[in-house]
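Q: Here's a chain of 658 amino acids. Please give me its 3D structure as tokens.
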Amino acid sequence: MAKLATASQFLCPLLFVLLLLCPCNAFYLPGTYMHTYAQQEEIYVKVNSLTSIETELPFSYYSLPYCQPKGGIKKSAENLGELLMGDQIDNSPYRFRVNVNESLYLCTTNALNEHDVTLLKQRTRDLYQVNMILDNLPVLRYTNQNGAIIQWTGFPVGYTPDGSSDDYIVNHLKFKVLVHEYEGGNVKIIGTGEEGMGVITENDKNTMNGYEIVGFEVVPCSVKRDPDAMSKLNMYDSVDKVNCPLEIERSQPIREQERITFTYEVEFVKSDIKWPSRWDHYLKMEGAKVHWFSIMNSLMVILFLAGIVFVIFLRTVRRDLTRYEELDRESQAQMTEELSGWKLVVGDVFREPTYSKLICVMVGDGVQILGMAIITIVFAALGFMSPASRGMLLTGMIILYLFLGIIAGYVSVRLWRTIKGTSEGWRSVSWSTACFFPGVSFLVLTILNFMLWANNSTGALPISLFFAIFALWFCISVPLTLIGGFMGTRAEQIEYPVRTNQIPREIPARKYPSWLLVAGAGTLPFGTLFIELFFILSSIWLGRFYYVFGFLLVVLLLLVVVCAEVSVVLTYMHLCVEDWRWWWKAFFASGSVAVYVFLYSINYLVFDLKSLSGPVSAMLYVGYVFIVSLAIMLATGTIGFLTSFSFVHYLFSSVKID
């Protein structure tokens, strides 16, 4: 053994050195692999859908009369997440040559007709933004507002000056491309930036020498040019540079019969920013103190509830059980007649709840959603969900949800067996579990999709994608849920520690409805996440990047603890007043947080999204928020129910009843 230990100590460092020295091809995970460009190499900008915080309806870039590339419009390959988010990435005629500063002509449009003018004016007044991408980096724009520099992604279609009824189109773009000169060396570790970590070896030296694109900025402006003179030029001919911004008289108005000339400038600037850190400008975390305040606030709530649970367990429950166990059988029988509180419902506490099948289905779906959320946020916090990989987060969530169907089926069927005492009907429970949440979501999304179709938005899912998602669900999630259900029938049945009486015990009348207490309990879990909820809503609806997944993971863990504690406390309070119908109340004690999330989201719509206009936009917002709130209800309700079930099982397993 000593020789083996000595040999392993020698071989491990040797193996590590050999791995470093041997030729290999490495990759960046996550994100995209670093790409270097040679001097004067041609690069083409890509364009994404036009977006607006006023309507939330994305439209194709080429739905407006913009210049088209010589070879025609070609769509980029998009993943499932990008398609669901309404992204439509196309090629564009904007061509750069590395380290060549130039000012170029693109095209001159035909005379604008009434339809073109109406569309351009509508997109301008709805504050639509043009989104461009270079080497997977979105274009950035900086504006000065009240002495503060504000960073935006994209640039406006046009603008309407104050006090003017005319609209002006942005037809000249001044690009600035930041490049970092990279020279391949021997083995070199690229730091763990937002796009991951990679190894560049000697074999890559020849191909990796060159320039990395580490920044992409734009200054948009409107320039009125002579269309007759400009139309004589060819695409990519040189034109004079422009100093932006220009006076209104020299800007290009949007009017009928106007011919618009599109031009652009590009300037390459060498930068010390390294490739792994190029996303830092996009992901600057603002309001870190607010995030910490949210976490500290949640910790205070947890400590408060933990104190209550501690008192329940150690002072009340254990004291009663200790006294009860110290008595002999005759004294126990005499004491039973004088009992009060939770000990009186010993023969009813495990009585089958109303709508028992529904609670099994909801708990199964809740486990599936909770597992998906935890795994996704953990991977995102570890850096595996890079913003460079558009749609990666949503795609990962969908794939995880599909494969976690096996756990949903197992939990729902095992709970069904526990309640019913038999496996009969497990197939129906499994099918219902597989269809409940996806069915509701599919119904809502179909209604919203018809609205998007009616508005010709790129956010509308094509019918082929509908069938693809349906096929994924039917071929992956449904079979796995049925397999999980079958495994649940073979698992060991959870035995109740006490027998259930044939005749249910009458529940004493109360001064106030018990559901009022349950509904109010949701305020405590909501208090742990409402600050983070504001940042998430701003990220989704105001076009901002959200990448503080470390904070989100901590908040999620705190939310799980708070939901568990709230449900246990509420369940114990109901048992103490001889209310043995705790099943649904335990679920909604923590699940009612979804009601407050939904109401807060509506409040955000009314007071923070004042720019959101039109009934279609409002319906889209409410529809998406409803789906998210339903998912939160199932996940948090499941946490509370399973914790309360364990608590009740433990509590009454300590009571000796003949």
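Q: Can you summarize the key feature?
A: The chain has 18 helices and 16 strands.
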